[in-house]
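Section 5.1 Outputs to date
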Amino acid sequence: MLYELLKTLQQELEPVVQSLPGGYYTLLDCDQREDLRKAGMDVLNNLPRLTNALAPVNRLPPEILGTIPKYREQDEDRMRVVTLSNVCSYWRNTFIAMPSLWTEFNGRDAEMSRISIERSGVLPIQLVVEGAPDPGVLELLAPHFPRLDVVSFDLSVLGRGGPDTQVVPMHGEFPSLERLQLKDLQLSINDVRTPKLRVLKLTRTYDFANLLDFLETCPLLENLELRLHHLNGEPPGARRKVVWDNLKTIVLCGHGLKILQHTSLPPGVEAGLYGPMILRDLTGHRNDGNLFNLQAWTHLPMFRQSESLSLRIASTYQLISLKGPGGNMGLKTRFHPHLNCVGLLIQFTRPSVDTIQNLEIDGVRLSGENAAVFEVVSDLLRPLHGLRSLKLVHTTPSPWIQVLDQNYCPRLWNLTLWESPPPSCEDLIRFVMGRSGAGVPISRLSLTKDIQKFFYTREDVERLEKYVRCVEWDPK
C-alpha cells in the first residue's frame, strides 16, 4: 500500500513544483524561492529511490537476492553478475558483499579478474577457460593458486590452428584443487601436486612415466578420463601398479588404454573404454585384429562379477558393455564388419563368462547360411552356461536360434525378438519344440507384435504356446 501511495504522491507533486513560478511563488524573496525549489526537487528526486526500495523484488532478503545470478544459463558470460549489479544500489551492494558470486574466472579481462579476486575474499576459486587464456590474468591469479578448486582449459575451440605447446605456467602445490580438466593443452605435470584431486580429465600427449608419477599422487581420485593422442617414452615395468581405493568411474580412449596395464581398480568401478587404436600387445607385436590388447583388463574385479552383457552397433561405432554388482564396463570401437564385432565380443566376454546371465545383441545383421557365422556365434554362446535371458534387437535371429537349438545355454528361459527380421514360423516352432524335448524349454518368448500381424496366424501362436509357458507380443 505504501508503495502505491508514494507513486501517487510523486505524480501529484510534479505539476505543483512545475507551477511554483506563478502565484504565491512570486511573493517570496529569492532565498525563499530557492529553498522551496530545492526542497521540492529533493522530494521528487528521493521519491523514485523510495518507491524502488519498496518494490517487491527489493524487499527480498540479501541471502535470497544473492541467488539470482546463480540461475544464469550455463553458456552465458560468467561475469554476468556485473551487469546485474547495475540494476540499482541495493542489488549492487548485495552482490558486492557476497564473495561466492565472484569466484569464477574465464581467463580473460585482467581488470575484471582483479576486481573478482578482491571481492572473492578467501573462498575457493574456479578457473574455467575456453580458448587461449590471457597471460595477464594468469599472472594475477598465480598468488591465489592455492585457492583453486577447479581448473579447466579447453583449447579445442581454437581448432587445429590453436597452440600446440605448454601455455599455462602452473607448478607447485595445489592443496585445494579437486577438479582438473585439460583438453587439447600440453601441460607439464612434473611439478604439480594435487593431494585432494577427485576428478581428472586429460586430452593430448603425455610422458608415460611422468603421468604415472602424477596419478600416484592423487589418492582421493574418484573420476578419471584419459583421451591420449600418444604416450611418450617407454612404459614402466609391468609390476608397477597405481591403486585408487575411491575410484568410481574411469574412461580411457586411444593410447590411454595402456594405463590399464598399470592400474588396480576397486570393486564397483564403472569403466568406459573407447577405441580402437592400433596398439601393440604385451609381446610387442602389432595387433590389427582386435586392435588392442584385451589381456590388459582381465584382472579387473568387475569381470568376475558381471551379470549382463550387451553389444550394440550404432552408426559407425559398436558398443560393448558388461554390468554387474562389481561394476560396469563399456567398450566403444569404430565400425567393423558385424562378424568381427561378435569376435571382439567373445574376447571381451571371456574373463567373466561364468557369471553372465543376460545377453543383449543390437543391430547385428548376420546370415545364418554362412558356416563362419555359425562358428562365431557358437563360440560366443557355448561357454555361457549361466545365461538366462537373450534379447535380439534389430538383429538377424536365425544363426542364434540355430546355435541354441544345439542345447547350448541350458538355463536359458527368456528369449526376446525385438524389431528383428522374423524367423519363419516353422523354424521358430522347431526351435522351441527341440528345447522342450531336450528338457531345457523356453519359458517366456517375447515377440514384436508385427511378427504376429504379418507372419503368424493364430494357429501358429497356439502351436508355440504348446511348448512355451508364456508367449508375449509387443514386449516393452
